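Exercise 3.2. Students should predict the tertiary structure of the chain below and write it as C-alpha cells, then compare their answer with the key that follows.

Predict this chain's 3D structure.
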Amino acid sequence: MQLFGMTFAVGEITDLMVAVLGFIGVVIAAWLAYVFATRQSRITHNTTIRTDRLRREIAALEAVWALLAYMSDKKSDKAIIHWTKHSREGSDIQYFYHFGHLERFMLHELSEVFYQQHAGLFVSKEVRDLVYGYRAVAAGFYFAHRAVAVNAEGLTPIDKPEQAEKLKGIYEQLNQQLRLELDQRYRALEV
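Answer key:
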C-alpha cells in the first residue's frame, strides 16, 4: 500500500495507526489532567479565600459584640447608661450616664475595635451604621458633660430620657443584627 508516496506493508500501517492513536490519546489525557488540576486548584484557592474571609468577618463581629458591654443598660463595670425607678410601677425612670465609661468607649474601645483590629473592614453596613448611630447619640452626652453636675457614683443625669431610650433601641437592634449575622457566618463556614 502506498501512502504519501511511500510504500508500506499491511502490518506497518497498523503499527503506524496504533502509534498515532496512542500519541493522540496521551495528548488528550494530558490536556484533561491539566484542566482537572487547574479547576481543582481554583476551587481550593477560592474555598480558602472564602473561609478566610468568613473567619475574619466572624472575628470582627465578635469584636463588635464585645462593645455591647458598654452599650447595655444593665448595671455593670462597663455600661454607659444606668437607670433608677422612682416608683414601684416603673413609670418614673431616671436615666444616668457614666462619663468615665463613655469616655473609654468613645476615645479608646471604639477606635481600637474598628481601626486597630480592622473590624470596620469586615462588618456589614447595617452593623456599622448602628454602632455609629449609637456613637452619634452618645457623643452628645460626651460633649455636654462639662456643663452638667455629677453625683458621688460618677453618674451624670440625662435630661432628655428620649435620648436614653434611643440608645436602648439602638442597642437592641445591634444585638439582634449581630446575632443574625454571626449565625449566618457560622452556618456559611460549616458548608
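Discussion points: The mean pLDDT is 87. The radius of gyration is 33 Å.
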